[in-house]
Amino acid sequence: MPSPTLSRALILLMATATGLAVASNYYAQPLLHSIAEQFGLSTTSAGTIVIAAQLSYGAGLLLLAPLGDMFEQRRLIVSMIAIATVGLVISACAPNLAWLLVGTTLTGLFSVVAQVLVPMAASLTAPEQRGRAVGTLMSGLLLGILLARTAAGFMAELGGWRSIYVLAAVLMAISAIALYRSLPQHKSHAGLKYPALIGSVFRLFAEEPVLRLRSLLGLLAFSLFALFWTPLAFLLVREPYHYGEAAIGLFGLAGAAGALAANWAGRLADRGKGALGTTVGLSALVLSWLPLGFAEQSLMALLIGVLLLDLAVQLVHVSNQNAVISLRPEARTRLNAGYISCYFIGGALGSLLGTQLFEYSGWKAIVVAGILIGTLALLVWVLAERRRKLQPPRPSAAAS
Prior knowledge:
Helices cover 78% and strands 0% of the residues. By secondary structure, the chain is mainly alpha-helical. The chain is globular.
């Protein structure tokens, strides 16, 4: 049993680094309209920037994040942040879409450092405080995702869309130095060579039904998140809004309240009520699309929908992640990598669906898709819970 070695200040530093790393994949979203205009791109072509970020993040989770169970984690974390920073510099200097995709992909691959930080925090925190620690880092993650849009919008108004990538590179470099100076050395060795280490992620899927269930729920929940956020900039530049980049970025602040759900979900998990957080989150996920159905005409409906959607996604995600990393303490990084890989694959699918539906069928088609996918996720969970209650308890299923 690990003894708590992380101070509150260090957990907050790790949460900040987690937010900065993940934010690197979301700066482009409120800027898609401006990038499309500069490079002469269609809505669908501009959307490939977001899809590249999410697919590369998913690939990094599968191929790179498991290295946390192989190498000393402080050195690995600092190295990954440094390489992600190089990707941000490439994006800042990109002369065309191809180079922007190169920078985006490099940053996406190595910004999975966030998912090395989360299991490390779980490993170095006492069991009765683990949910709260994970919830704090996940608050940082969600704030990074959402405030990235706000920061990108304001920086674009001040210095063009490239300026946010310059600022982000500087902040990432600072976080690498701070983590190198503050993190304890920590190694969780799985005793496997790299091919076997990656293969073990797939074996965990085969052996752990909780991992399969939670990964599917995460995929569906985050696909709805991306389904909404990816085409939002194109909605807000049209009638009746006609918003600029800074105003579009402000919508990240509305969704940032979802970070409050992270600590609540973590506390529920610490009290053995993670299933309640999942049920509430999935129900709210479906309900959020009702006000979003009026987003083309009503700013208030749009804001209510954003708030509810982000609260719901965060509740589901933190409940999922606490259930997954509790399955096998010796394989936390790989369990987390498998789950988050599915999570961001869902984001890529949601982004692809969102850009396609918006370009060819408009906002109402996105709302219909959101309701259908949310209902599917809730149905999967209800059936799984009913089946679990009818079966004798398994050691791993108890964490679900």
